[in-house]
Amino acid sequence: MPDATLFRTDDKPVAWQIEDELVPYPLALKKMKNQVAEMAANGVQERVWLLEHPPLYTAGTSAKTDDLTDPDFLPVFEAGRGGQYTYHGPGQRVVYFMLDLRERGRDVRAFVRTMESLVIDTLAQFNIEGYQVDGRVGVWVKRPDKGFGKEDKIAAIGVRVSRWISFHGISINLNPDLGDYKGIVPCGITDQGVTSFEDLGQLASMPELDSALKLSFERHFGPIEISKAKF
């Protein structure tokens, strides 16, 4: 996949914030919606929010009832983003992108492609070869140890755009409990699996992953500014 960038023409930095504690999903959704409204109405600074959620499932706008195979296993939340069912939980880095696409080309496909490039670039810093698959959103790795042609998803992407302001984003599996995926068909894909850094034998800490994400974000989206105020 060719390298992708989506810089602002004015080079204004994006507020970058890392949350230290697990964030309940409804609270995160509320904060994102408020941020999007403020950005659309008042032009407040763009923001990228890195966090972890308690164990839960979210349903995108294309979620199919049959893909929720165990409705009682974990709490389920309507996300309002594109895509189907996905899992969030401790050990998974969630990155929410609240970016103004009016300043970044007004091209949602290019935005998603650039997010995938960011993830692939981040994985490469840990010697993990991720790639895009035509017709699927997200980032994948080959798993020859599981059989010919097998591949696992290591990062999911789901976005929503309102008045050209994005929210939701990406989730990268560092070391979550992969058994928690058993209550859903992840992203509606039945013939491939999910993996993580740990599952691939790559041990890294969350701060190390965050540092790699920061470098990749600056490469693909432009400068950041560490946020000193709580979101």
Automatic annotation (TrEMBL):
> What EC class is this?
transferase
> Where, by residue number, is the active site?
C187
- One Pfam short name: LplA-B_cat
- The principal localisation class reads cytoplasm
Q: Where in the cell is it found?
A: Cytoplasm
Where is each BPL/LPL catalytic domain found? 42-225
**Database matches in Gene3D superfamilies:** Bira Bifunctional Protein, Domain 2
Q: Which SUPFAM superfamilies would you find in this protein's record?
A: Class II aaRS and biotin synthetases
Identify the residues that bind substrate. Answer: R81, G82, G83, Q84, Y85, T86, Y87, H88, A156, I157, G158, G169, I170, S171
User: What is its pathway?
Assistant: Protein modification; protein lipoylation via endogenous pathway; protein N(6)-(lipoyl)lysine from octanoyl-[acyl-carrier-protein]: step 1/2
Give the signal sequence positions.
none
Q: Which InterPro entries match?
A: aa-tRNA-synth_II/BPL/LPL (IPR045864), BPL_LPL_catalytic (IPR004143), Octanoyltransferase (IPR000544), Octanoyltransferase_CS (IPR020605)
Q: Where is this site: Lowers pKa of active site Cys?
A: K153
Enzyme Commission number(s) of this protein: 2.3.1.181
The record, for CDD domains, names: LipB
Q: Which reaction does it catalyse?
A: octanoyl-[ACP] + L-lysyl-[protein] = N(6)-octanoyl-L-lysyl-[protein] + holo-[ACP] + H(+)
Q: Please provide the record's keywords in A-Z order.
A: Acyltransferase, Cytoplasm, Transferase
PANTHER family reported in the protein's UniProt record: LIPOYLTRANSFERASE 2, MITOCHONDRIAL-RELATED, OCTANOYLTRANSFERASE
* Family as reported in the entry's similarity comment: Belongs to the LipB family.
What's this protein's function?
Catalyzes the transfer of endogenously produced octanoic acid from octanoyl-acyl-carrier-protein onto the lipoyl domains of lipoate-dependent enzymes. Lipoyl-ACP can also act as a substrate although octanoyl-ACP is likely to be the physiological substrate.
Q: What else is known?
A: In the reaction, the free carboxyl group of octanoic acid is attached via an amide linkage to the epsilon-amino group of a specific lysine residue of lipoyl domains of lipoate-dependent enzymes.
Q: Protein name, please? A: Octanoyltransferase
Species name: Maritalea porphyrae
